[in-house]
Amino acid sequence: MLGSHDRPEGEHAHGHTHGLVDPTIKRSRAGLRAVLISFAVLGATAVIQVAVYTVTGSVALLADLIHNFGDALTAVPLGAAFLLRSARAERYAGLAVVFAIFASACVAGVFAIEKIISPQAPTHLLALGIAGAVGFAGNEVAAQVRLAAGRRLDSPALVADGYHARADGFVSLAVVLSAALVALGEPLADPVIAIAITAVILRITWQSWLTVSGRGHPHR
Fold it and tell me: Does residue 121 lie within any of the structural domains?
């Protein structure tokens, strides 16, 4: 007769189990862990960029940090979805991600237009370039975490957010370009690049909507 510790592997039993965790609990924990890690990374990235923005006044950097903050905040609905262990909640979380991306694009666009109307070149250009590089690194780390977890857990919301973060990394490099162009004597480059960043964010919004709504497939 087999004891409680001698059951063949794969045999199901009611009550207490040894070394076994319900798959829905494991999925919830793994999803929540990925969300929290990416939240911490993007939050730290945005805080660094805020500090640099206060001394540079770069609207391109402002557009990037607004978006990074919005991206970090998407951890709230995503985390709630995994805690609830609900596919429907996870789908709604994906829609919330799309809305956050769109809202950040609108805010960034308004600030960029204001700077074109009343141009003022940013200062401390080396710090500005470093802030753009920090944005790229932070978003790439967040993308790796979200994409790996999203594919492993078959979560469209996490996959959409992962590709969004990866694209954001390249958007952050535009801040580096802004610093270089202003240094070369093109002060209008900063708000123009901010407009370009806004356009990219809107494109990301559409791609994320297709992924979350099931009308498209994330690029691999």
Answer: yes
**pLDDT value at position 218?**
45
pTM beyond 0.85, yes or no: no
Structure confidence by residue, pLDDT tens digits, 32-55: 888 889 889 988 998 999 999 999
Q: Is residue 73 part of a domain?
A: yes
Q: What is the pLDDT of residues 128-154, one digit of tens each?
A: 999 999 999 999 999 999 899 888 888
* Cβ proximity of 127 and 56 under 8 Å: yes
- Whether residue 44 is contained in a domain is answered as yes
68-89 pLDDT, tens per residue? 877 777 677 777 777 777 777 7
* Count of Cβ atoms closer than 10 Å to residue 74 Cβ: 27
Whether 180 is in a domain gets the answer: yes
Name the nearest CA neighbour of 135 among 36, 39, 41. 41
DSSP-derived secondary structure for the chain: ---TT-PPTT---SS--SS---HHHHHHHHHHHHHHHHHHHHHHHHHHHHHHHHHH--HHHHHHHHHHHHHHHTHHHHHHHHHHT-HHHHHHHHHHHHHHHHHHHHHHHHHHHHHHHS------HHHHHHHHHHHHHHHHHHHHHHHHHHHHHT-HHHHHHHHHHHHHHHHHHHHHHHHHHHHTT-TTHHHHHHHHHHHHHHHHHHHHHHHHHTSS----
d(CA 103, CA 152): 29
